[in-house]
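Lecture 7 notes. Example A: sequence first, then its structure tokens.
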Amino acid sequence: MTEKLTVSVLGTGIMGAAMARNLVRAGHTVRAWNRTRAKAEPLAADGAHVAGTPAEAVEGADVVLTMLYDGPAALDVMREAAPALAPGAAWVQSTTAGIEAVGELAAFAREHGLVFFDVPVLGTRQPAEDGQLLVLAAGPSEHRAAVTPVFDAVGARTVWTGEDGAAGSATRLKLVANSWVIAATAAVGEVLALAQALGVDPQGFFDAIAGGPLDMGYLHAKSRLILDDRLTPPQFAVVTAVKDARLIVRAAEEHGVRLDVAAASAERLERAAAQGHGDEDMAAAYFASFAD
């Protein structure tokens, strides 16, 4: 029988709220917090306790799960939670924070006696809501049993990448995966924009590549969001994709690699955000192909 835990979820945006709901459904006690409380309040109807502060949320928690905007945000929130953190608790850090920030977060964990797990996830709104995320995790084998019930509640599969969360091996894999996602999304937007400019029916393009090596489900999924004007609510928002794209470019530069496509994709996403599409799905980078 799966052990029932008390899990603190700090950050209840698109991903965090879905993860919190699945943890409740799995029978765990969930204490949720979000900077904008209104985003966390709906979780009360699902059975979660909505806390007013990070410290209140982590009180008595076996596992603290952070799903915030970036590394600095995660560190700030954990500092607010610090007075109530229990030494020996597991910290499942799922924010896409970047390699450098993971080291800073792990250092905080050591200072407060927390068992640190580097745990970014792959997936967007729908997989998160369905508990079908791909969990990428790094952390000590002797403590993995304490967090496995959490991973099982939110994900379909867990890929362990290393023993030391501070090394950021899971985050490194997440950045590699997201570089592909962002490049593919940019390509979807550009091919639809070019088709429109040249008077080509997009369906003709889909039919031409159907069943071949150039065909892919992601192309169809993102294309439909654009063509059917279903960019809200977002599966993965433009503003968040900008942040991830910049983390990818920075990580590459620090390791002597130039990523022209990632850099250009970040600029496209930033233009789309400036045009007013920041809170829409990242497929809205399509609009960056056109003048304001």
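Example B, a different protein, same format:
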Amino acid sequence: MKVGITEIAARAQVSEATVSRVINRRQGVAKKTRDAVEQAMAELGYERPTQGQLVAVVTEFVSNPFFADVAERLESALAPHGLKTVLCPAFPGGVQEREFITALADKGVAAVVFLSASNTVEGADTETYEILRARRIPYVGINGVFADGVPAPVYSTDDRLAAELAVDHLYRLGHRNIGMASGPAGNHPADQRVQGFLSSMAKRGIENPGRWVIRQSYTVEGGQAAAGALLQLGATAIVAASDYMALGAIRGIRRLGRSVPDDVSVVGYDGSMITEFTDPPLTTVRQPASGLALEVGRGVLALVSNRDVPTGELLFDPELVIRSTTAPVREG
């Protein structure tokens, strides 16, 4: 029989949260209780995870260089403190994510980082978070707030500011028909970028800016489809919600017989290293991967040491990186 926290808690007649604290060698458990849990572990043949303890990084976008970069930097921040990250590719808010968390909780995972996972989805099922809270396993989010009433630290790039930087750059180049290839509705970062885009366009006197927003998936194909729709509206510039969508937009523009940036300018988002080597090199709004990973690492280390970390969303400024996919609007 598979032995997990539930079986140990039943044998020792304590809560699963107490078992989790003993497994993870945390303070706050009386010696008598700790001894009872240790005895139950021995009787049931439970093998305590070896040092270093695991930190689960849950994300859908494992193929996206930006998310891989954040995960790698987070590993570097945590490794010197005896913590090892394990990547859990899972569809946000789905059964797979919950199964990952349940299995790792049974093995004594030290903490969980939701990297643009269920924390990005509006109305996501909170059962996963309830499992973690019941076992007192701390968790944090990156780029997406948790559902209402879920108290946890969140570290995000300022998506509204990212949209402002892109619109301002294109507007200064003379573009007025600026379109947005956005991510899907109900995705928190996508919704924030759309709000930033609408606000930026409106304050520059652009009427009915909502007509310039096309919602699509965060993929090359999604970017290509959005570009086609925006060019039909007469867009001379496109703000994409990710670098992948920007590359798709460029492909779509070219297949329609237009060129980048002579006919249409394109701005990406994320700022992964590959954007330096695209043809042409991509103008993009870069997320601060290093700053995000460092601060998340500090938060995780504090939480696993039973220190308080402020809940709510901490915002980091993005940076506009101008390369060769943007140019002044062509007259006539």
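Note on Example B: The mean pLDDT is 91. The chain has eleven helices and twelve strands.
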